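Hi X.,

You mentioned you wanted examples for the new student's onboarding notes, showing what a folding record looks like when two proteins sit in one file. Here is a clean example. The first protein comes first, with its sequence line followed by its structure tokens.
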Amino acid sequence: MKCGILGLTVLALLFGGVGQAKAEFTITFSQDGNNVEAVGTGTLNLTATDYAGTNYSGTSAEVNPTRAVVILESGPQAYDVQDTLGSGPSSFGTGPNVVASMGTGLPVGIVGSTEDLLVPHGYTSGDYLSSSATWDNTTISALGLMPGTYTWTWGNVSAGTADSFEVIVPSPATAVPEPSALTLLGIGAVSLVGYGWRRRRKSA
């Protein structure tokens, strides 16, 4: 009986991911020196989404954590809005809308508060996308981004229409002493040891 339960447990662990939508498009934020970067790569399945219109005036790469909005692109371009009719967080922070200093690639993004996808005008499901955006002279905290992994899902697994969109915000990096500071600390420690040894030798 125990062997049977163990076997079922192993099978569940091995195949538990089957039938769940994995993130096909992911945007990852990172702190790069004085700037914040966001890189998005992957594909999108629009089969289970509803076309909600085209914006010909275009937009700009931007982030609005309060409304769970992040858009990556090289500059104002026409994009299609697709209603996912799915589920996901309506925010990923408390910051206001901030336009990026620069961006690359075709327009792609998420408006989590309304569960809409933004894709290049005329985008075909399954086409690979790669876009980015950079916010100069700021930090992840200053943009109001809350660390975590945020996922929006839609579609039906058994019908082959399931898909997801993921935004990853890292935790602030732990401060690490500069190598030069560590070197100075080491020299200071050796000097103290040497000084103590000389004093003991004179006393003797």
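Then the second protein repeats the pattern, sequence line and then tokens:
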Amino acid sequence: MMALELISKFGPFLATHIAVRGNPGRGNMSYLSSTICDEFISLIASNVRKVVMAEMKDSKYYSMIVDSTPDCSHVDQLSLIIRYVPRKKYEAVERFIKFLPYVGHRATDMWDTVVVALTAYDVNFQDCRGQSYDNASNTSGLYAGYKL
């Protein structure tokens, strides 16, 4: 709900809807339940991700950062971040793409998870110019390694 209230500061339609229909009590439709809020957040995230991926593809070359991160319930997950230089801006940007399920410490399992995630966005792996993996020494070529 706080995310919707923040967004409503930039959208008069949503601000009016929250002012009129917000917290009306049981039995009245407001479309502001936690389920609907989660759906709004999911839709917004999907649209932002599409814009970021289009901008990244337009810039052609990119690098990726994969990091193991525990969530609030202390369950490990992988954070996938893309770094690229947008055209006509000439400054590198880093964009969070998504959380991926943590599959363990084996390099091949981690790599397979990243490949599935990026393939869903039709990313060309030949344009990848750098890779960074935090706390993952087994991803180096000395052990199993990642291979593009």
